[in-house]
Design goal:
The complex is a heterotrimer of chains A (60), B (765) and C (727). By secondary structure, chain A is mainly alpha-helical. Chain A has helices at 3-27, 36-40. With 727 residues, chain C is mainly alpha-helical. Chain C is globular and about 85 Å long. The relative contact order of chain C is 0.10. The chains are: A mainly alpha (60), B alpha+beta (765), C mainly alpha (727). Chains A and C meet through helix 1 and helix 2 of A and helix 6, helix 7, helix 8, helix 9 and strand 4 of C.
Chain lengths: 60, 765, 727
Amino acid sequence: MTVVVLLIVAGGLVAGGFLCAFAWAVQSGQFDDTATPPLRMLRDDGASESRDKGVSCPLR
Amino acid sequence: MFCCTGCASVYDLIASHGLEGFYACDIPAGVSQRNSVTRDGGYAVFDDEVLAARLIEWRREGRARVQFSIPAMHCASCVWLLEQLWRVVPGVERSEVDLLRRQLAVEFNEHQTSLRRIAERLSALGYPPVIDAEHAVGDVPTARRTLYLRIGLAGFAFGNVMLFSIPRYINGGPLEPTFQRLFSTLNLVFAVPVLLYSAAPYFQSAWQAVRARVMTLDVPVALGLTVLFTRSVADITSGRGEGFLDSFSGLVFFLLIGRLFQQKAFEQIAFDRTVRSFLPLSVRVARGDTTVLTPIDRVVVDDELLIRPQEVVPADSVLIDAAGAIDYAFATGESAAVAVGSGQAVAAGGRVIGRTIRLRVVRPVSQSQLVSLWSDPAFTRPKPYWLADVSNRFGWWFTLAALALAVGGAAWWWPDAGRAASVATAVLIIACPCALTLAAPITLGTAMGVLGRAGCYLKHPAVILDLSRVDVVAFDKTGTLTARDAIDEGGSMTPRDRELVSRLAAESVHPVSRALAGRGPVVGLIHDVEEVAGLGLSGEVDGHRVALGSAPFISAETGRPLDADDGRAWAAVDGALAGCIELDERRRPGIEAAVHALNTRLETLLLSGDRSVDARSWAPLFGNRLRFGMAPQDKLAEVQQLQAAGHRVLMVGDGLNDAGALRAASVGVAVSDDTACLVPACDAVIRGDRVVDLPAILAYARRARGVILLCFALSIAYNVVGLSLALTGRLTPLVTAILMPVSSLTVVGLSVGLMRRAYRPRAAA
Amino acid sequence: MPPAVSAAPEPSLSPDAETFAYDNAVVRKFIVATAGWGIVAFLVGLTIALKLVFPGFLAFIPQLSYGRLRPLHTNAAIFAFAGNALFVGVYYSLQRLCKARMFSDKLSAIHFWGWQLIIVSAALTLPFGFTTSKEYAELEWPIDIAIALVWVTFGVNLIGTVLTRRVRHMYVSIWFYLATFITVALLHIVNSLELPVSFLKSYSVYAGVQDALVQWWYGHNAVAFFLTTPFLGIMYYFIPKAANRPVFSYRLSIVHFWALIFLYIWAGPHHLLYTALPDWAQSLGTAFSIMLIAPSWGGMVNGLLTLRGAWDRVREDPVLKFLVIGVTAYGMSTFEGPMMSLKSVNALTHYTDYVIGHVHLGALAWNGGLAFAMLYYILPRIYGTRLFSVRLANLHFWLASLGILAYSIPLYIGGITQSLMWREFGADGALRYPNFLETVVRIIPMYALRVVGGSLFMAGALVAIYNLYRTARSGVFEPDTVDRAPALAPVAGREHGWHRALEARPTQFAVLTFIAIAIGGFIEYVPTALIQSNVPTIAAVKPYTPLELEGRDLYIREGCVGCHSQMIRPIRAETERYGEYSKAGEFVYDHPFLWGSKRTGPDLQREGGKYPDSWHFLHMRTPASTSPGSIMPAYTWLYSSTLDDSHIEGKIITLRRLGVPYPAGYERQAQADLRAQAEKIATGLRTSGVEAAPDQEVIALIAYLQRLGTDIKNKPAATVASVEGGR
C-alpha cells in the first residue's frame, strides 16, 4: 500500500498550495470586507447591458 | 422607489454622467451638477493638514489614496455608484467601498483634485463623509487578519492531523511501522507551525501574566498546550505512542475561534470615547499673521486661538472678537448656548457655535476647570472589570489545583517513574481549561453584538457581567428620562428638507436650532448664513436657500403670509414653505413602565442638574430618591458615596455634565440621541429611544452570567471525568481527542445558542 | 462604444479608466458545444439503457455494444456536457467578476477547439475498444496528454485573467474556479500515469490494489472538483444574479470553500469499502465523507437562503427554477453520498444500480439543472433580447424534473431489490436465489422505467435547445460587451507593508517546510514504492500467460468491466455465491485493476474453472443459449475476427518494466507459447464437439476467464490472510 504515500504527497502538495493561497488572501485583505463583494457582483455587467437593468436596492 | 437618500439624491446627477446602468428609465441628460464650487463650506476642514494626515493611506508622485467614512452608504446601488466615482469626479482614479466599515477608499491625482473637492462632491452625491475624531487610516484590521491566519493554519493542521490519526484509532492498534512512522512524523510537521504561530497569543499573554504576577486563565491554557505538545513529541520520538497532536491542534483551533468571537464583537462597535476624543487634538494658534496647528498640550497662556464652529474650547480664555456663542452643555448639562461679548471669559469645554471665534488663553489646558473634572481619580484609575478579577482568582485556584493533582498523581504512581510522568502530564493536559476560556468570550461577545444591534453599545464585553450585578440605577433627567425634541408640526417636512434645515440650524444658537441640529460634528456646504436677531436665520445649504425663523420672517421669505405669529418656528427651502417646528421637552415614551420595572428588582435614583421645578411629577417614579440642582461634582460624589456603601451603581446620563459620575459608577451608560456624538469616558452608550429597554438589558446581562456559570459547571464536569481517567493512567489519545472537542463544542454551542435570540426588549410604545 | 459611456462629459473621465470588452464569442461557442454534446451524451445514455431492456437492440455492431458505449456515455456526460457547461459559466462570470476580458483570445480558442478535439477523439477511440478501463479515465495515453495540455491552457487563461483583473477583491466563485483547475490537473496526471505499449495501448503503472486506490481517489475527486466545485462557483454567481439579491452569507461561502478544499481530497477510499484495501484506509474514506456533509450543506443552505423572499420570482423565472432544483439535488446527493459510504449501507448499495441512480440525480439535476439555468440566463443577455418562450422553458423544467424522478426512483428500487435478493438465504441456509439471472430478470421492468425517465429528460433538453435557438434568432449577437473600469494599481506605498510580511512569515515558513518535506518524501518513497509494491506476495500467484494476457486485453476492449466485477467482498452472501473472497495479493499483476463498480452480471473473480471452455464458447456467442433470459449481448465478432498477437512482445516487455516477473528474454518465446495454448484450448473445444479455430479472439478470452481466481483456489486461506494483513 505504499501508493498511499504517493497520494498523501500529491494531496499534501495541493493542500499546501491552498494553504499558501489562503495565507496570501488573508494577508492581502481579501477577507477583510465580507459585506461589499456580494453586492458589488450584482452590478458587474458591462455598460451596454444596461438596457434591461432596473433600479434595485436589494437590502431595501 | 429609493432605499436611501443616497440613491434618491444622486438620481439627477447620475443622469448627466451617463450612468444609466443605475436606472432602467431614460433620464433627460444635461442636468448640471451643483455645488462644484463653494467659498467656505464645512468642507474647508478637509484642507487641514492634520486631518488629511489622518485620512491619507499613502501618497506618492502626485497620487494619493484616502479613506473617507461615509455612514450614508448601505445598498448595492450605493456600492456601485461610489465605485463609479471616477466617472463623475475629475482626478479620481479609482474608488473602493468597504461596506462593513462604511468606508470609501479613493485613489486620486492630487494635481487634478483635492481631498476637499472629493469630499464636497461626495456630499453632493448624497454621501457626506463624516470626520470622526477617532477614525484614523492606520486601523486596517491587521489584528483580525493575523487571527484569520492563525485559525486557518490551525484548522488546516487539525484536518490533516485527524487524517493521519484516525487510521490509528480505527485500526485499534499501531499500523504497519512504516506507515505509523510516516503518519506520526507528518503530524509533527503539521503541529509545529500550530505551536509556533497559531498558539502564540496564549503563550504571550501567559508570559505577560506571569511577569505581572497575576494569574489569568491563559496560564493554565498555555501550560496545558505546552505539556500536550512536549508529551506528544516524547511519545512519538520514543515510539511509545502516537501522541496527542490531534487534540493539540484541535484545541488551538477551538480556542482561536473563541478569540474570533471576541474580536468580531469589538469590531461591530468601534466605540472607545476617551477624554482626548472630546478635546480637539490640536488647535489653530495665531502666530503673527499666520495660524499654526498646535497640539493642545503645547498651548500656553496668552496664545491666540482660532476655534471654528462645533469645535471645543480647549482652555479657559477670553474672547477677542466682538461677539460669539458658546454651548456649555458639557459643564452645565443644559444644552442652551450662551452669547459672549468681547473680553468676556470663555470656559474650557464650551463648544463654539455659529461663527469661528478668536480667543486668548488665560489658563493653560491642564489647570482649566474642564481638565480638573477629568483629572479626578475616577477618570485616571481604570476600574477593574468584575470578570477580570474573577478570572484572575479563578486562574490561581485552577492552576494550583491542576499542579497539585499532577504532583499527587505522579507521587501515587511513584516507583514507576515512566507511569508517574505520563499520569502527571495527562492530568495537566486534561486540566487545560479550554472550555472555561471559551465560555466567557463567546457568551459575552455574542451578547455584546446582540445589544449593539439593539442600540446599546458596550465598550467592552466584560461590562455585561458588571451590568448583571448592579443594584442601584441612578438616572440623569434631561436628555435621559426626557428628550428635548424639535418636532415637525403636521409632519409636512420631507426628510431631505429636514436635513437641510437642521444643517443650517447648526450655525445658530437659538434653542430651537440647537434642538434641531444634532450634537455630531456637522460638515456641510453652508454659506451666506445670516441671522436676524429675534427673527430667524437663512443661508445656502448644498445650494438650496434655506430659511428658519418666526412666521413674519418666513412669510417674507416665501412671499406668502402666514397665520398669526404664535412663537412657533417655521422653515422654508428654496423660497417654499417647508414646515413648522415646535420645541418640546417630554418624557421618553414608556419611561415610566421602564423605571417601575427596575424598581421591582433594584433601587432607582434621579440625579438632575436643573432646578427642582417638576419634582412632583417625578415623585411617583422615584419617591423621595430625587436630587435636583446637582453640579457634576455633586453627582460624582453621590455615586462614589453609594459605591463606598457597598452598592454597585449603574449611572445613566446624557454623558456630558455627569461624566464623572458615569466613570465612577461600576457601570456608566451614556444616553445619546445620535451615536456620533462625543461622549466622555463611559462603559456603554445607549440610544435615547432605547433607554426604556434598560430592564430588558439588565435581564439579558443576568442571563449571560447564568450561561457562563452553566458552561463553567459543564466544563468542570468534563474535567472531572477526564481527570479520573488521567489519574488512573487511562487517558488515551483517543479519549482526549473525543473529550476535548466535545467539551469545547458544547460550550460554544451553549453560549451562542442560549444568547443569540434571548434578548427581548419590551416593545417601546 | 455604448451610448452610456459616450454621454459622459470629457473632463470627468479618469485618464486611468480603461475601455475593454467581455468576450461573448467564446462563451457562445461553449454554449453551442454544451447543448450539442449534451444531446449526444443523453442519446448514448438512452441507447445503452435500451440495450439493458432489449439486448438485441443494435447488437450486431461491435462499436455500439454496451460495454464500449458505456464509457462513451460517462465521458460525454462528464467531460463533454458538464465540462463545456462549466466552461460557459467560468468564461462568462470570470470576465465580469474580474472586470477584464479573458487573458488571451488565442488561449481561449486553443482551449475551446482543443477540448472539442479531445471529445471527438474520445468518440472515435472508445467505441473501437481503445480504453484503459479506468472509470472516467478510459481515454488512452495520447489523449490523456492532450487533456493535460488543454487543461493547462485553460489554467493559464484563467489565472492570467485573475492576475489582470480590475477588481481588487476576488469574489468567492473565482476561488472555486481556481481550486478546480489546480486539483483536476493533479488528479488527472497522477491517475493517468501509464506505460505505453503501442500508439493506443498502455498499461497503468499501478497494479491491483494500488491501482484501485489511485483510481478511486481520482474518481471521487473528479466528481468533487470537476462536477462540484466549479458548479458551486457557478451557483454563487448565477443565483445572486438571477435573484438580484446578494448571497445569503458571504462569510459562510468563504468558510465553506476552505472547509471543502481541506476535506474533499481525502474522501476517495470510500469507493473501495469491503475491498482488499486495508480497513483503516477504507474507514478513513468513510470518516471524511461523513465530515463532508457539513461544508456541502453549507453551500446548499447558502444557495437556497439567498432566495428567501424571492420565492415568488422562483415561480415565474425558469432560470431560478433550474437553479433551485439543482441546488436541492446537490443537497440530497451530498447527503446520500456520505450515507452510502457507511459500511453497512455500502454493503447493500454497492455494485447495484442504486449507485447509478445516485450519480444521475447529481448529474441530471445538479449539473444539468445549473447548466440549463446558465444557458437560459446568458443567451438572452449576449443576444440583447428576451427568452423566446417562458412557457417552453417551464415545459422543459417539468419534463426534466419528471425525467429525473422517473429515472432515479426505479433504479433506487431496483438496486435495493436486487441487492436484497443477492443476500437472501433460505431456511436451509443456502442462497435463496443462487442463479444470478433471477435477480436480473426481476428488475428489468425498472430498467424499462429508467428508459422512460431518460427520454423525458432528453425531450426536455430538445425543447430547451429549440427555445434557445429561437431566442438567439430573435436577437442580435453581441460578440463583445463593452465596459470601462480603472486599472487596478498595485496596493503600494503601504508604510507597514513590510512588517505585515514579517507577520506572515511563520505561516509561509510552515507551509514551505511542509512542502519541502512532502517533496522529500516523494523523492524518497515513491519510485521504490511503485516498483517494490508490485512484487508478488502470494507464492501461488503467477503472471498471466501471453494468451491470457491477450484475453485480458480483449476483456478490457469489450468493456466487460462495465457489468462484471472482479472483487468478492468478505460477506457470506458473496462468498456463498462466488467463492473465496478476494485477497490483495491476487491482483499484483493486474495492470490495470479490473474490480469494476457495478454488477449487471455476476462477479467473475472466481470464474476460472467454474464452467467448461465449451460453455463459455457458446455463452458468448448466444448468451441465451446457456443462460435463458440473459440480457448480456452476443459477442459474435469475437468469433469472426482473428486474434492480433503482434504486440505481445511489447506487452511482455512493458509489464516487466512495471515489475511483473516475466523471465528475461521471455518476450521472444511469448508468441509461440500463446499459439500453443490457443491450439490446446481449440482442440479441447473440438473434442467437446464445438467448432473452434485457435486464432479466434474468443479463445484468448476463454483462456483468461478460465484463469481468473484459480491461483489461490486450493490454498489454505491462513497464509493468504497473513500476507494480506501486511498490505
